[in-house]
Design brief:
Layout lengths: L19 H8 L4 H6 L13 H13 L5 H10 L1 H7 L10 H10 L2 H17 L7 E10 L8 E2 L3 H5 L16 H17 L13 E2 L7 E3 L7 E11 L5 E8 L8 H13 L7 E3 L7 H9 L3 E3 L13 E4 L4 E4 L4 E9 L5 E7 L1 H5 L4 H5 L7 E5 L2 H11 L2 H24 L9 H26 L16 H11 L4
Helix pairs in contact: 1-5, 3-16, 4-5, 4-6, 7-16
């Protein structure tokens, strides 16, 4: 009977030199991971999973669009190129999927962010990042929680009762009575719309997910509600490299996150001696406070105003120097005081004299029948709004709006479709942040490797083509690989 002889050969000899993972292994030195992970690894005890292998496995999962650790290790077990990339021979057993999951859970988010920053630095060294123009956008990423398992939060009455013990550990309702009454009106509308079957409108104000308490209910027009996180990204306009990514809660407007994204992106670029000057975003990030803060930071913004803002009041002319309005009859409305609207936003109120409105021929249709004088309101950030609208109306402003659509939106689409971000299987905001950082690393590494392959002396990632079709193939690759 023939004896069994294990295969003892280097996989590097079996993997083609033009294979993607072989090129990635030869181009990027992953030894930087060890110094970042060293404070969280113990010198004694049972040997832990090699941090370089850990990071490489996570990158492979996103490069292969795999969200399951079990499926990832099954693929790595059979894939010669991945085995060689990890540094494992044919006879070496790969780590267990549970080891990969526990290692991810124990490491803090800061380690993943540091790895992402290092990859951004590699892209900067290769000239892929200009730094001056950053496009910002966000997308909802489905959380690993079910809408059918939502539970109600504790009522205010049970919260105030100190002798009541809640075995479910449900969070208390923190919304005001006005907000709760607003939700109740929607409940009534649902019951009227379906009299034979009781409906239920769930809200972040009244319900939570026991499986993932940090996941938030979100929805878009024409789509069903779901539990999700918000993936906020900042993309450089030069070669579409991701310069910042973050996992945010999905129950706030995008405008609440803009300054945090800008500050984090600016800080990361400054560590590599790059200066950011321009921020491009859609109308979801518009607010007077954001406009003001961008100006204070010395940044030029191209962010369309929200639909509720009105630059002018029909029949009235505003003078910014004297801070007053003049009506069509030549009467003036002077500044009265600052007030707060129902949403808590500060506004400036302007009043006309009652005597001027009393004998005005347009008084009935201008001020109304009950009011004694005409009143006007506008936001305290009117100057910032007007400067932003004037900037967007220029030729540069129109080009910046097109640039945003062609820069950050394809990047988000690629992350969701091809890099395993359509559904985050990890729990909590920290788990979502770790997934997003590794996905952005995989995306940037693909950009970095593609750029490096076309440099003099670099290795091509495509097979040689016949001379008559070479430039046609290069044009096709340039137009399609930018979305990969």
């Amino acid at each position: 009977m023939l004896g069994f002889h294990p295969i003892r050969t280097s996989l590097l000899k079996l993997v083609p030199t033009r294979h993607f993972y072989q090129q990635l292994l030869q181009t990027v030195d992953f030894s930087f991971v060890r110094s970042l992970f060293a404070p969280f690894y113990s010198a004694g005890g049972r040997p832990s999973l090699d941090p370089v292998v850990f990071v490489k496995l996570l990158l492979v999962g996103h490069l292969e669009n795999i969200t399951s650790d079990r499926k990832l290790l099954e693929l790595a077990q059979l894939h010669l190129g991945i085995r060689a990339f990890l540094g494992y021979d044919l006879a070496q057993p790969l780590p267990w999927h549970s080891t990969l999951s526990r290692t991810r859970q124990r490491l803090p988010v800061a380690v993943f962010e540091a790895c992402f920053t290092h990859i951004v630095g590699l892209c900067i060294q290769q000239g892929l990042v200009s730094g001056h123009t950053q496009a910002v956008d966000s997308a909802y990423i489905k959380a690993n929680a079910s809408m059918s398992r939502l539970q109600p939060k504790r009522s205010r009455a049970s919260t105030e009762a100190t002798n009541t013990v809640d075995p479910t550990n449900a969070p208390p309702i923190t919304a005001s009575e006005d907000r709760l009454q607003h939700i109740q009106r929607f409940h009534a509308a649902i019951r009227k719309a379906a009299p034979t079957k009781s409906g239920r409108l769930v809200s972040n104000l009244t319900h939570y997910s026991p499986a993932d308490p940090e996941a938030r209910i979100c929805f878009k027009t024409g789509k069903i509600r779901q539990l999700a996180y918000t993936a906020s990204v900042s993309v450089d306009a030069a070669q579409h490299v991701i310069t910042h990514i973050h996992a945010d809660l999905a129950d706030w407007r995008d405008s609440r996150y803009l300054l945090a994204i800008v500050d984090s992106t600016q800080q990361r670029l400054q560590t590599f001696a790059l200066a950011m000057t321009t921020v491009v975003a859609d109308a979801g990030y518009s607010s007077g406070e954001n406009y003001e803060q961008l100006e204070k930071r010395g940044l030029t913004g191209y962010i369309p105003a929200h639909g509720k803002y009105k630059a002018e009041h029909a029949g009235f002319t505003y003078d910014a120097v004297t801070d007053r309005y003049t009506c069509s009859q030549g009467k003036q409305l002077v500044f009265d005081k600052l007030i707060l609207d129902r949403q808590g936003n500060p506004k400036k109120r302007y009043w006309a004299k009652a005597a001027d409105c009393k004998h005005c021929p347009l008084a009935a249709q201008c001020k109304g029948k009950k009011a004694r004088e005409k009143r006007l309101h506008h936001t305290v950030y009117k100057g910032q709004y007007d400067r932003m609208l004037a900037r967007l109306a220029t030729r540069v402003g129109q080009r910046m709006r097109r640039l945003r659509a062609s820069t950050v939106e394809p990047v988000l689409g690629s992350l969701i479709t091809y890099f395993g971000v359509r559904h985050i299987t990890k729990k909590g905001q920290a788990g979502a942040a770790k997934v997003l950082y590794v996905a952005a690393m995989a995306y940037n590494l693909k950009k970095y490797l593609r750029f490096n392959s076309w440099q003099p002396g670099g290795c091509e990632l495509v097979l040689p083509a016949p001379a008559p079709f070479r430039w046609l193939l290069l044009s096709f690759c340039n137009s399609h690989l930018c979305y990969s």
